[in-house]
Design a protein that fits this description.
mainly alpha; DNA polymerase, domain 1; hpI Integrase, Chain A; 3-stranded antiparallel beta sheet; 3% strand
Length: 369
Amino acid sequence: MNEQDQLQNFLDNAYVRSHSKYTVLAYDLGVRRFKKFLVDRNDSSLQQITSELKDKTLDVYELLRDFVGYLDKSNLKPRTIELSINAIKGYLRFVGIKIHSEDFKQVVKMPRKPKTRETPLSKEMLSCLLRNVSPKMQTIVLVAVSSGMRVGELGQLKISDIDFDSKPTIIKIRAETTKTRESRETFLTDEATKSLKEYLRRHFNWLEGEPNDQLGGKTIFGRTSINKKLKNENITTNYSSSLLQNTLKYHMKKIPSLNKKNENGIHVIHFHAFRKFFRTTVGNVCGRDFAEALMGHRFYMDTYYLLTEEKKRLMYLDAEPHLTISDFKAVEQNLRTVSEKHAQLEGKVNELMEYLRVNSIKIPEFLTS
């Protein structure tokens, strides 16, 4: 098998595992960088180097260490270097060359990733954003903020994935649309639900309380006009995700007060920032495990699945007021008022209990249960 066929088999195998076009492109770019490194190093080919590695006339760890230094001198960012190294490690393993993780760590030193501070999203920022974007983008932002979904999952969301009959509204995220290839459920706030229903009525003639079977397979936030032209589902998926991100960037350029960047050069407002806002907000109310599980982080899924459906629903309802953006000051004031009244009531009950004990009066069962 020639070098090109072997590389194509590797990329095909990478796609089977990830079903991500972007993963394949990243691996392909990483291998191409390695091939350029080999030419610049001593005019070698990938096939020649592979043979030398198999014959053990060349040390794989020293080769990878030199490749890291080459990439670093090319002024590539640590994350880009890491992706390229992962790509070539994957390829070399694919063709039968053993690379032990511990040995790699001992010999090959990767550049440190700089840790920069990010400006956290606030409700004031999100409220300002909602006032300055189109109705469609308003709905997208509200759904993203209240569900913790990835942009790729939003881009593939279908009407049939939504259960409006539940309280709160449930979104069933299909396994084939997720990064981990595991299905899960998340929820929507009442605010996001109302916005989404209005959006569906306007753009899809969706009827509340009706089966709407003819709309079940419709992609909600994609551009439906391209779905007929693009037969490859993966291309359509990637297009939808890019469309959402580019549309958000377009709106951001028109809002100078929000069009700011973090120290790392990434905009303060972007789709992953919505997920971080969700994780922080829900985590503060319900605990980190619950928030991470709703977001689809595999490590926390087992804990989440131990909860009953009713418990999941109630926990989300506890977090819902904190995820509500429109008129959030009034919502938060109501929460403080309810909390204060609860504290006052609890104090009065304690006083009553003490009075009953002091006067040897039998305490009613409803006060002790």
